[in-house]
Design goal:
Elements lengths: L1 E5 L3 E3 L5 E9 L3 E10 L6 E7 L4 E2 L8 E6 L4 E6 L8 E10 L3 E5 L3 E5 L2
Parallel strand pairs: 2-11
Antiparallel strand pairs: 1-3, 3-8, 4-5, 4-9, 5-6, 7-8, 9-10, 9-11
């Protein structure tokens, strides 16, 4: 069993910054990739950032240059630094991990709300 626990989101003014973290716990032999997705009201869940175990990063154009994903493999933790936040970044943010446990799993966090508003 593997669990992901995310830090709290919050309310941020446009142009502000916020850092999210997500830690994995349980029976973990390797985490192939960790990432963040988001889902705004009435929209589909979309990828925000992803990082593999060798450090390869993926970002959609909508956040490129503003968001940075990083991970601490010693702590099984992934971070998302969000800068220059815009109202359209408002969403529930979900942590995701592809984990080799007793089997290969895709695990999701519970989600944390980020609201960008003045």
């Amino acid at each position: 069993q593997v669990q992901l626990v995310e830090s709290e989101g919050g309310l941020v003014q446009p142009g502000g910054s916020l850092r999210l973290s997500c830690g994995a716990s349980g029976t973990i032999f390797n985490i192939y990739a960790m990432g963040w997705y988001r889902q705004a009201p009435g929209k589909q869940r979309e990828l925000v950032a992803r990082i593999t175990d060798n450090g390869s990063r993926t970002y959609p154009d909508s956040v490129k240059g503003r968001f940075t994903i990083s991970r601490d493999n010693t702590k099984n933790t992934v971070y998302l630094q969000m800068n220059s936040l815009k109202p359209e970044d408002t969403a529930v943010y979900y942590c995701n991990a592809e984990v080799r446990s007793t089997s290969t799993l895709e695990v999701w966090g519970q989600g944390t709300l980020v609201t960008v508003s003045s």
